[in-house]
Amino acid sequence: MNQPLFLTPVFQERIWGGTALRDQFGYDIPSDKTGECWAISGHPNGQSTVRSGEFAGKTVGELWDQHPELFGHYDSPVFPLLTKILDANADLSVQVHPDDSYANINENGELGKTECWYIIDCDEGADMIFGHNALSKEEFTSMIEKGEWSDLLRRVKIKPGDFFYVPSGTIHALCTGTLVLETQQSSDTTYRVYDYDRTDADGNTRELHIDKSIDVTTIPHTAESVEPKVDSRDGVTITTFVEAEYFTVHKWEVNGHASFVQDKPFQLASVLSGAGTLRVQGEDHVLEKGMHLIIPADVETFEVEGQVELIVSHV
User: Fold this and answer.
1) For residue 151, which phi and psi values (nearest 5 degrees)?
2) Set 22, 51, 154, 192: catalytic member
3) What domain of life is recorded for the organism (predicted)?
């Protein structure tokens, strides 16, 4: 093999979705309410497939099960990470995610969901909900029951290039006019706390999960500060946003020519802007905005040439 795995993403329609995934990345989206691009995914609710080469047509989950050597024989029953791009054309529900132990018991063995966001783009003056103001579970429960949302929820201003680490147990919501690359555990478990009393075309509200939300929310709110580390060397500036239990996330800004050594079991990469060439064992692969790929374990060294910005993650 010894070559990168370029992937075809899966798109998910959401009531809060829009057209930014088409407008900014040129994707062929299913509708004008497309909220999520599952770019690198082995989750059964939406699996990316390999575009070409020896494993063309295989899903990430199939490769994980059938070819553990591609992933350095990393010890996990499922492909552990999930990369998404989210188009919040309207406010997302206010939500919280469980940790591994709670999800394992209450969600049929699903992983918990710790995630992080890189703000690709957002409206001028945009904000998001990140955390809450309750000091005890009793106060948290009371404020929910009374609908005291403006007092309960914390809002923070955002701008393009910002990065947020969102551990399980964190109350959060992306808000209108935000385009985000999300790196997360491979989980599709979300507990909705509040959905602005929205209704669908038939007048139905979406299901809330108040009891589970109260169970899993971290109270009082604690925010882990993100202190990016920047390393510049020949042809590349590498910003490390987070090194956490489930994933490490970097931004690679290549300007010219850069060489890399694969010192991880595998790496996930998404091209945010620009264009370039990925060279592996003398073979060139085009890198263009909106491409997503896995650099497997057997790619020992590689080079990137051009003017290109990537978000890269690994376990």
Assistant:
1) -80, -35
2) 192
3) Bacteria
Q: Which CATH class for the 5-216 domain?
A: mainly beta
Token pair for 197: 């009393």
Quick check: helix, strand or coil at residue 165?
A: strand
What is the value of pTM for the model shown?
0.96
The reply to whether 172 sits in an annotated binding site is: yes
- The Cα 265–Cα 68 span in angstroms is 10
Question: Is 97 marked as a binding-site residue?
Answer: yes
Query: What is the structure's pLDDT at 1?
Result: 63
CA atoms within 13 A on the CB side of 200: 8
Domain ranges of the chain: 5-216, 229-314
| Mean pLDDT along residues 288-310 | 97
Q: Are strands 42-43 and 46-47 parallel, antiparallel or unpaired?
A: antiparallel
Residue pLDDT, tens place only, 252-275: 999 999 999 999 999 999 999 999
Asked whether residue 132 is marked as a ligand-binding residue, the answer is: no
CATH 2.60.120.10 given to domain 229-314: yes
307 and 276 Cβ atoms separated by less than 8 Å: yes
Task: Tell me if residue 51 is catalytic.
Answer: no
Q: Is the pLDDT of residue 75 over 70?
A: yes
Q: What is the pLDDT of residues 98-138, one digit of tens each?
A: 999 999 999 999 999 999 999 999 999 999 999 999 999 99
Q: Which residues, 6+ apart, have CB-to-CB distance to 269 below 8 Å? A: 252, 292, 293, 294, 295, 310, 311, 312
Q: Which amino acid is at 79?
A: F
